[in-house]
Q: What sequence folds into this?
């Protein structure tokens, strides 16, 4: 393979997909590929697809066709959930030379393209500036939610060894990343498949992994954030780890609710009722200092009545979410819910979405008021283009913050005292800058041999 071979990657969908694309990209860059520049033809294109919705399928097909038109001589390799669900369909798209149907085959994919030293993780993350990196710790989902296709395309639980994860985090932090987001298809099931037949004292769970991560000898060089987790996996053991390391683990949890109606939750085949969900959030409130909660809600699930929706609004109020990702129900072929009767008319779904958006704004305002006067850790993420001298970033509690500051703060963790709530963000005042720790010092602390950055 010549050093002139060029590579283009396109990722659709979730954080796990973003991680897996980066894993393949870095493996190929390590044997001489380079990223194609803007308007430069690519020799090899990697497309990581999504199939959560029909729109995900359509966008995946569109991305493949656009790459084929722009790079008529390129070989296109397609992976991801759409490739797993419909491999024959994907194989017929223009330019496609290979369809990877199982993400467990990614090391084999790299080997087929000449990678001899198969990586166990990544060392950088292709997100522009070095600020935040996603770390995949787990794959697979064994649940049976009636609306979700993912357990059919990623059914196999697989948890990465803790030593691989710790080594990867050390490399990312040494490379300048200051927020590590732990992600997985079902994050709360980390370690589950390895625990069968073992006494509980020997189990490996997410709480154990988190404890090992925060014990890395990297001082205040980074913070950890959890991505989405299920309410039933908010165990007392996990809560205790979160409470014991509040300065290292962001006190923000994205706990997927989907509905506040027990009747709808039963049709969705979720594993809990609304009261159990609310109680888990209350436990977190009791043990953590003013935690932030975000969630997902499906609006207009088949059979959802006005009374069911009112129960969802009431549950949202009781929890006090600061962010609600609301989605209108979209029938996904291949799922049981796609064939349910009592479909909710689109105008009703849209009216409910609007009401939920109004409630989200109200709840966010209430939560932001609780933060006024607090000093919070903020990851600086640049500045508004039209306002010089203003820095912006994301706080540990997932509130967007703007404050007086220069571009030299970009990518840094700083302490900001929260001031005014301004709708979807807050303003504040810089209190303290965490000193930048040299990469060599970080590497020495964990016994890491630094490699040239890709």
A:
């Amino acid at each position: 393979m010549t050093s002139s071979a060029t590579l283009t990657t396109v990722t659709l969908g979730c954080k796990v997909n973003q991680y897996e694309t980066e894993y393949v990209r870095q493996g190929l860059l390590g044997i001489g590929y380079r990223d194609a520049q803007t308007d430069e033809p690519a020799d090899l294109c990697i497309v990581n697809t999504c199939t959560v919705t029909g729109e995900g399928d359509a966008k995946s097909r569109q991305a493949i066709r656009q790459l084929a038109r722009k790079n008529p001589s390129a070989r296109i390799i397609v992976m991801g959930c759409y490739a797993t669900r419909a491999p024959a369909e994907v194989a017929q798209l223009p330019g496609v030379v290979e369809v990877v149907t199982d993400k467990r085959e990614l090391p084999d994919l790299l080997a087929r393209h000449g990678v001899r030293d198969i990586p166990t993780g990544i060392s950088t993350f292709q997100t522009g500036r070095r600020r935040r990196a996603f770390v995949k710790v787990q794959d697979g989902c064994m649940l049976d939610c009636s609306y979700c296709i993912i357990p059919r395309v990623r059914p196999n639980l697989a948890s990465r060894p803790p030593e691989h994860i710790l080594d990867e985090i050390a490399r990312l932090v040494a490379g300048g990343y200051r927020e590590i987001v732990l992600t997985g298809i079902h994050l709360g099931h980390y370690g589950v498949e390895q625990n069968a037949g073992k006494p509980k004292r020997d189990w490996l769970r997410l709480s154990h992994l988190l404890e090992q991560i925060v014990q890395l000898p990297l001082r205040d060089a980074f913070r950890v954030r959890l991505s989405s987790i299920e309410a039933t996996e908010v165990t007392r053991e996990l809560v205790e780890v979160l409470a014991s390391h509040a300065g290292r683990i962001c006190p923000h949890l994205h706990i997927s609710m989907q509905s506040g109606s027990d009747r709808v939750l039963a049709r969705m085949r979720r594993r809990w009722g609304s009261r159990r969900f609310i109680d888990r959030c209350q436990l977190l409130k009791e043990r953590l200092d003013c935690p932030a909660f975000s969630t997902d809600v499906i609006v207009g699930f088949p059979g959802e009545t006005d009374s069911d929706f009112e129960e969802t609004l009431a549950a949202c109020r009781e929890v006090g979410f600061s962010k609600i990702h609301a989605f209108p129900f979209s029938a996904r072929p291949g799922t049981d819910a796609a064939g349910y009767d009592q479909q909710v008319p689109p105008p009703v779904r849209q009216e409910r979405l609007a009401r939920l958006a109004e409630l989200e704004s109200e709840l966010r305002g209430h939560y932001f008021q609780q933060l006024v006067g607090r000093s919070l850790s903020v990851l600086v993420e640049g500045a508004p283009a039209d306002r010089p001298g203003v820095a912006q970033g994301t706080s540990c509690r997932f509130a967007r913050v703007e404050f007086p500051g220069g571009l030299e703060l970009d990518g840094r963790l700083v302490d900001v005292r929260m001031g005014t709530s301004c709708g979807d963000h807050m303003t504040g005042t810089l209190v303290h800058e965490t000193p930048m720790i040299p990469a060599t010092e970080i590497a020495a602390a964990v016994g890491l041999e630094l490699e040239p950055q890709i």
Observations:
- The first strand starts at residue 6 and ends at 11.
- The chain has a mean pLDDT of 93.
- The chain is about 35% helix and 20% strand.
- The chain has four domains: 6-112, 121-250, 256-370, 375-433.
